[in-house]
Specification:
globular, single chain, 10 helices, mainly alpha
């Protein structure tokens, strides 16, 4: 490299799956597949994650109310009860995608904020960068989840608003 040239290291992290998200859903044993690539995630979500993986996620949440997590993922209490009767029956691809995104955002927030309790508190608190909306409220749509992820990226790099 000549003088004046700047080496830019690409952020590989954004292209790799978050192992922590898979762990929050019970890992390979509950997802029935080891997650190595984004394509692995796609295939797991396309066939639907087992409801037992969603229940595992609920059991790993420490601060948030289960009802808030169900709402963020778009699952009613009745749907969860029906799924619990057949724990290996998969969620729909749409429900699976929202459950994965919740796990992914929780894993990212845990990484940025230092621990899962702080991450859950942050998800449940109004955020200036989201016009005083709770990040948790925005996870029910792809656009909202993207906004939350962008805010986490800004927080990670010291830009809080």
């Amino acid at each position: 490299m000549g003088s004046g040239a700047v080496a830019v290291r690409p952020r590989a992290e954004s292209k790799l799956p978050r192992a922590e998200a898979a762990d929050l859903l019970g890992g390979a044993s509950l997802l029935r597949r080891k997650i190595r690539t984004r394509l692995d995630i796609h295939e797991v979500l396309e066939r639907g994650i087992p409801s037992s993986a969603f229940n595992f996620l609920l059991s790993r949440v420490k601060v948030l109310a289960p009802a808030d997590v169900r709402q963020a993922v778009g699952l009613s209490m009745r749907t969860v009860q029906r799924r619990n009767q057949t724990p290996q029956k998969p969620l729909s691809p749409e429900q699976s995608g929202r459950a994965w995104k919740f796990a992914e955002v929780l894993a990212k927030a845990t990484d940025v904020l230092g621990n899962q309790e702080a991450a859950e508190e942050w998800l449940n608190s109004p955020a200036i960068g989201l016009d005083q909306r709770r990040p948790l409220e925005l996870l029910s749509t792809a656009v909202g989840a993207e906004m939350v992820e962008r805010l986490l990226g800004r927080i990670e790099f010291g830009v809080y608003t």
